[in-house]
């Protein structure tokens, strides 16, 4: 397996990991996100902890996609590639903030402060869940929408993958970003038809990119763009 083929495979696998872990974690978080009195009663803490662990893996995979693809896409435009890598790191950081907020709810439920009443615990628990909700808006929506456009632009220019794939990203990224702006200003909720519909193209973009990189790798016509510059043959001066 060539260096470029390994890079493509690793990047594709990491993209799949981000999807599996994010969906699984959100499902596991159900009790703490959907029940305002979770902090007061005996809840299924283990599933919340497993969800948090999955989101840690998610954050590492998000950064991993940027680290893996940066040496390849920087040959198209290093500034844009740096922007993509930086935004992926920011996205992962926001995800971690959301993890910590939900773990704080678990801690309060297991070890409530001495002298604290139920009303205070309930208010604090709701505030911590609200922090997670905002991180979910700013990380996977606003920041994701932006870094999607940057990577899709680089892949469209380089033709490293068929152009229909980055076109999905160029469409989906702005849609997710605009939908998040709508949620931010209260036009609709995150769990609504406009928000869900806007996520379809970017979801298709990431899955199609992941499977193409795993199964096909970078396109042979653009293979030269994936090899280190030092590996290229320099024409003889003779």
Largest sheet entry: none
Structural Rg: 21 Å
Please tally the helical runs, counting DSSP H or I stretches of 4 or more residues.
7
Task: Categorize the overall geometry.
Answer: elongated
Query: How many discrete domains?
Result: 1
Low-pLDDT stretches are 228-238
Structural class: mainly alpha
Please bin the fraction of helical residues. Answer: over 70%
**What is the first-to-last residue Cα distance?**
34 Å
Overall pLDDT metric: 89
Question: Roughly what fraction of the amino acids lie in strands?
Answer: under 5%
**In total, how many beta strands?**
0
Overview in brief:
Helices cover 75% and strands 0% of the residues.
Can you walk through the features of this model?
The protein is mainly α and about 240 residues long. The protein has one domain. It contains 7 helices and no strands. The longest helix is centred in the middle third of the chain and has 41 residues, at about 120-160. About 40% of the residues are buried.
SSE arrangement:
Elements: H1 3-28, H2 30-34, H3 45-73, H4 78-110, H5 118-158, H6 164-184, H7 193-215
Helix pairs in contact: 1-3, 1-7, 3-4, 4-5, 5-6, 6-7
